[in-house]
Amino acid sequence: MTEVPAPDGTVEITMPRLGDTVLEGTILGWLRQPGDRVAVGELIAEISSDKVTTEYPAEQAGTLVELLVPEGATVPVGAPIARLALDAAPAVAPPPSPPPLAESAPAGIVEIAMPRLGDTVLEGTILGWLRQPGDRVAVGELIAE
Q: 40 exposed, middle or buried (CB, 10 Å; 0-12, 13-18, 19+)?
């Protein structure tokens, strides 16, 4: 979610883009209610699109003032969905550090990193491997689900 300053000193939390082609999202549930204090990274809403369902964290610390979108409602990306009153010294979540790189791979070996599954998705789970070590893999061939 993007947090946009409002004239009253609060920030508007807007519907995030859950993928490159996603134009709207549905609030499946609010994990915090007005009056609740939230810390940076604390989950505040569960949001769904036609491509992904995710829980979304607060980008700044403060007190949730108002829920602008009811559960079950679908709104366009960028639409205000809640308001947050910031703490006196707003904290910004540090960007996630990249995973450590492995020692240099032998010639001809390429490391494959976990792909980014959406703008707000920070991790993924490999459900199963479709190829095994030693298998030849062509460009564009699926290797995992």
A: middle
Distance CA 140, CA 72 (A): 37
Rounded Cα distance, 118 and 92, in Å: 21
Measure the CA–CA gap between 116 and 119, rounded to whole angstroms: 8
Mark residue 105 as left, alpha or beta (left: phi above 0; alpha: psi -120 to 50; beta: remaining). beta
pLDDT tens per residue across span 3-61: 556 667 788 999 888 777 888 999 999 999 999 999 988 999 999 988 888 888 888 89
Strands (E) located in the chain: 2-5, 10-14, 24-30, 37-38, 43-48, 53-57, 62-67, 74-76, 80-86
Q: What are phi and psi of 82, to 5 degrees?
A: -160, 165
* Separation between Cα atoms, residue 68 and residue 13, nearest integer Å: 9
